[in-house]
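Lab meeting minutes (informal)
Scribe: AK
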Amino acid sequence: MKKTFKKLMAALLAVALLCAMAVPAFADEGAAAGSGTGSTGSITINNARANAVYKAYKMFDVISSKTENGETTYVYKVDSAWETFFKNGTGKDYITVDAHGQPTWNTDKNSTNKSDDLESFAEAALSYASTSSISPTGTGKTSGTDGSEVAVTINNLPLGYYVIDTSVGALCSLGTVGGNNATIEEKNSIPTIKKTIDIDKTTNDAAIGDTVNYTVTINAKKGATDYELVDTMTKGLTFKQNSLTVKVNDVPIASSSYELTVDSAASDGSVTFHVKFNQTYLDTLTSDTTIVVSYQAEVNKDALIYSSANTNTAKLKYGNTSTVESQTTTYSYKFDLVKTDNANKLLTGAKFVLHKTATDSNDLVSFIKVSANNYRVADSTELGSAITEIVVENKGAVTISGLNKDSYWLEETKAPDGYNLLLNRQIVDMTQSSNYTATVTSDTYTKDGVQVINNAGATLPSTGGMGTTLFYVIGGGLMVAAVVLLVTKKRMENK
């Protein structure tokens, strides 16, 4: 019988070595194999994932062992908690347990693709453990930074044949704890996530009302479990729910493969949405698969203005506890408009419109008046009540916010009383690194911002007053001269 079991376990170990995705636990060659019910060992998981839980379930007890020519064989007996699984459950399709509780690996399940057999067997065993409320024989937990690799040891394990579950993926291990220490390698790969704007950027500039295009690229792994994309947008970004698409190889996957939910706004105004992938879909991933999630958001009226950023953070939850994340930032801008004469004295009463081009007349920027001398760009929900004219009501800087990092043109529609209207549009080049926050003291402009200068009106020559009097004097003189001439003429005739 021992000879039979020696052949059996040699075959099982060979299968485990050929299993690329099921992780074989093996006895440390330097440790003597224990025997008897009083012996214990441990399992060390190398390359364990941070913030993960590892559970070891003992399916068979090791009754005895023998090491010969560097090869250890074991005699097993089924654990009482697993008798139903092997006698009446899925386990009997893989392992036959005889009347003495001793196992034999079924040759009809020992197919050409041995890794598939072991993988499906381990999955069936863990499913049984869950549905039958079997407690793990031992548990190991890791901490550390998400995405990192650590080591963890599960101690004080009775000698036996174990299936080991991991919270980070569906790929599990099978193997024997037969000495003081066994070592396995974690084979569940850490997925990756990359979030970009317009395909290749992580930072962009946008005006209030602009639409931002996001792309999240997920490198999904075989054995993926509990994949969930969690995206949080700050108060200044409005998620466009109907814009979301999920594609593999540029082909949309079935909508039944995932579920989209949107949370209510948090106390800080941020909104989080979730894309939860169904496990039935994840189970179809037999190799690394690139999943591309695309969606849009509008920069809204609550957008933060430079140098504060409107952030968008995407996290991928995987397994039960682990996450990886990626973040993008969107900036909006402002400038201060200062109206002065040519001596830098502040003026009031001027009116302006802001153009997106140098010559077009139908390209006006729409604004919401926040307060006197304070305007911001209107978002899509405010266009019905928006205005286009900016009024310099008080002496000082007029703040215009919510702009893209672009070039704009100011056109004066009304000059201050007593000053000439500007003939041409004045460029405001937001692409420069200038300081667009103006400094004014008392009624005088000092520096920075955007200064617009008006010249006082000219004084032209007048024909009133003195000119009219002169005409009266000349006319009166001519009349007197005529009277004198007439009198002189009559006197000469009388002589």
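Next up, CB showed the second protein from the same session:
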Amino acid sequence: MLNKILSFYKVSAPSAEKLSPEKADGKYKRLRFQAFVAATLGYSLYYVCRTSLNVMKQPIIDSGVLDATQLGIIGACLYWTYAVGKFVNGFLADYCNIKKFMATGLVVSAFANFIMGVLGLWEGSAGVASASMFVMFAIMWTLNGWSQSMGSPPAIISLSRWYPLKIRGTFYGFFSASHNFGEGLSFLFVAALVSAAGWQWGFFGASLAGALGVTLIALWLHDTPESKGLSPVEVLAGEKTQEEYDRELLEKTANASDNSAETKRIQKAVLRNPGVWILALSSAFMYMSRYAINEWGMFFLQKTKGFELLEASSIIAVNTIAGIVGTVCAGWISDTLFKGDRKWPALAAGVIESVALVLFLYGGDGWVVNIAAMVLFGIAIGVLISFIGGLMAVDLVPRKATGAALGIVGLASYAAAGLMNIISGWLIDGHAVRDQLTGEIIQYDFTYVSAFWVAAAVISFLLPILNWKRKKQEIYYQLIKNSGVIKDSGVFILIL
């Protein structure tokens, strides 16, 4: 049974039929575009299944089913499982058929949302105890967390397999907009369903979005160029000649048993890379502030500034839509204006994010100030997700270890997001004003949790500066090859 599963998910074998150069170019461009669209839109629909609960916090709390502390723990279940899963699945994805791997995760995520919708209806009809609902929601959201970790690694690996180095940053920027599109769709589409039919139906809407994503991935995401009768992207992009590729193919065929060991050696080298771990810690604090808004922003607007559900969801959605500008521009600007150097735009984005967060939390209840804050916050977070949350780590490592690098950053990022959720829920409940007779909450105090969120944002952009004091070193492929650590990795840059 295990062998059948492993065989099902293994990387596609090269096609026996090799296309002629005349046919190869057109097919490569078409399949490359399809893979990009499937990875980007497919992952955006992953996000709908991940952020659906954020829209429903206020209705769920008001219904008395769960409180803020319980919802914080449930949210942490997703992020902590996601963190471990992204680390594990980041490594596994390097060995897997990315189409099958990514589709499987979204199937499970859609299923988890569907079951939570059913549980919500069941609670309304059967009067399920709050403690039981808490446990069942936590189990389903934990399952969702693991399945969510199967989305990002194969999607980004697809960009590495189908796009050359010289334009990868630009297309990674476009891909990163999938976060924003998915979050925006969740805040608008799911919020509309919740307002019209109740919070339970928000989960059903997310499940439907997941089913659409699975269909798109199945039709358009392709595993490798070689499986389609094409040369690898290095040859197609002119990074290597056909003769070099053919020679290396013969070596790999003669030493097939060494390929897995080679990938493992590369991944171990990534684990020892201090630059990756510094970025991982920086990303951890950035994700605290990012998900503070995505998880609790609507609740904050409703309880402190008096906005209704659809009003609050629309304001938060602005941040996700504006983020598309940040993510799309980030890769292009760094590739063209800064020649691949991400540190200065990343620093600027970190400062803007912190200022925008302060404006949102302390700038009053007017529409203009809150929307302006979300525009700035969204653009800045879009840039930071692209750089600190992914591209800066990918730049440090060879193609074969892309998933491993992302796994390390993802582990730190989402472990921190989970911790943020629990701390935030505890601070919100712990400092709420309660009726002395009934014990019911009559007013929420966000003073302490707001300070926590701002502090995380500031630390996130200060940490990468630690690398600037060290000498920037370029480690070239030949040096690594001669060391015997890596046989075929390409050039990469390590900041020590």
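CB comment: The chain has one domain: 26-242+262-495.
No objections, moving on.
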